Amino acid sequence: MNIIIARFRQPDAEFSYVMEGTETGLVKRLPQPGEFEYTMRHWPGTIRTRRIERHLLPTGARLLSKTPADLTERTRDGRIELFIERVIPGGDSLEISYRWAQ
Predict the structure, then answer these.
(1) Per the domain annotation, does 1 fall within a domain?
(2) HSE-up of residue 28 (Cα within 13 Å, Cβ side)
(3) Strand partners for 57
(4) What is the pLDDT along the chain (102 residues), one digit of tens a residue?
(5) pTM over 0.85
(6) 9 assigned to some structural domain
(7) Per residue, what are the HEC states of 21-80?
(8) Range of the domain at 95
(9) Which residues contact 9 (CB under 8 A, 6 or more apart)?
(10) Does some domain include residue 11?
(11) Alpha carbon 86 to chain centroid distance?
């Protein structure tokens, strides 16, 4: 992905962009029948990043575990939705992980 900045910015100046989409291949089937896991560590690089993620589990899924602690669980259209909004300092990372049963 390339980001083109239309106007000159001073070094360390803040700017915003939004990236939205669906990514496949991140869910792992576990050895226990009907259990699945998602794990992803996000490394935004050297800049401070505000990250917002929303994950919608399949209909009928039962959440077994989740991290980090501020990964919020709520219900949307009868399905479990996991949501997080976090500022990640430059050079740091954020790992999101959860398991569910179908």
Answers:
(1) no
(2) 10
(3) none
(4) 556 666 666 777 776 777 777 778 889 999 999 999 999 998 888 888 888 999 999 999 999 999 999 999 999 999 999 999 999 998 999 999 999 999
(5) no
(6) no
(7) CCCCCCEEECCCCCEEEEEEEECCCCCCEEEEEEEECCCCCEEEEEECCCCEEEEECCEE
(8) 27-101
(9) 15
(10) no
(11) 10
Has residue 44 been placed in a domain? yes
Could you give the CA distance from residue 49 to residue 44 in angstroms, rounded to a whole number? 6
Q: Which amino acid is at 54?
A: R
The pair of three-digit structure tokens given for residue 92, joined into one six-digit string: 């740091």
The pair of structure tokens assigned to 23 is 């990514």
Q: Kindly compute the dihedral angle of the four CA atoms of residues 65, 91, 23, 60, in this order, to the nearest 10 degrees.
A: 10
Give the chain's domain count: 1
